[in-house]
Amino acid sequence: MNELKIDSSPDVIIDKNQNVKRFGEYSGGILTKLIGSTKSLIFSEKLILSEDPPNLVVKGLHVFFENGMIHSKEKESEISDFDKIDYCIQLKPELVKQFDSQRFSAHYPHIVRFLHTACLYLDADSYKIDHLEFVSGEILNRPVGITHDNGIILGDRLVIDDRRLIFYDCILIGREENQKIKQTFEHFLTIPLKFLTSLILLGNENF
């Protein structure tokens, strides 16, 4: 069994790069990123990580690609092969609180909301998707971006301007130079599209 690095952040439950596993039961905002070309995500509020036998049980919203299509399903999964997990972190309560406090009203008239989870952009070995021109200039709801260096952007709103992405009120998850995972909150983030491997909008069916 891999040893835990005690100098890792207590918010990190699993980190493949840093050889971290914090066994126990967790509740609150939890994000698990799986390994693979499309980098599937699991959003959950409860997770159990056991050492003997090695097993992760997580129930929540699974967002994944299959045959070039995006899917989002509420389900419970058991993962015994930890090598399939890139990292699993518990979102800091203060960041979640700040994110929720900045969220736009659901009745705001000029925000585009999709009924079902949709993929706007995917740059994978097997599939390429690019629907950005159809929503350029619109205010989009609940964007999630995954970067080439395995970072995640959880945004409240997104505007696409000439293939430049402008996220508003977002939680950023990424690695520092020492490869440790860090999470921060930004009111405003502008990045070029080339930094992302995928961009999705979480649909209203999940909320």
Question: Would you mind describing this structure in some detail?
Answer:
Residues 1-6 have low confidence and may be disordered. The chain is mainly beta. The chain has one helix at 93-102, and strands at 12-15, 20-21, 24-34, 41-50, 55-66, 69-79, 85-90, 111-112, 118-123, 128-130, 139-141, 143-147, 152-161, 164-175, 181-192, 196-201. The strands form 2 sheets. Strands 8, 9, 10, 11, 12, 13, 14, 15 and 16 form a 9-stranded mixed beta sheet that branches. Strands 2-1-7-3-4-5-6 form a 7-stranded antiparallel beta sheet, with no helix packed on it. The chain folds into 2 domains: 12-90, SH3 type barrels, CATH 2.30.30; 93-206, Roll (SH3 type barrels). It starts with 11 loop residues before the first strand and ends in a 6-residue tail after the last strand. It is globular and about 50 Å long.
Short description:
By secondary structure, the protein is mainly beta. It has one helix at residues 93-102, and strands at 12-15, 20-21, 24-34, 41-50, 55-66, 69-79, 85-90, 111-112, 118-123, 128-130, 139-141, 143-147, 152-161, 164-175, 181-192, 196-201.
How many H/I helices? Answer: 1
Structural domain count: 2
* Helical amount: under 10%
Would you tell me which CATH topology of the largest domain applies? Answer: SH3 type barrels
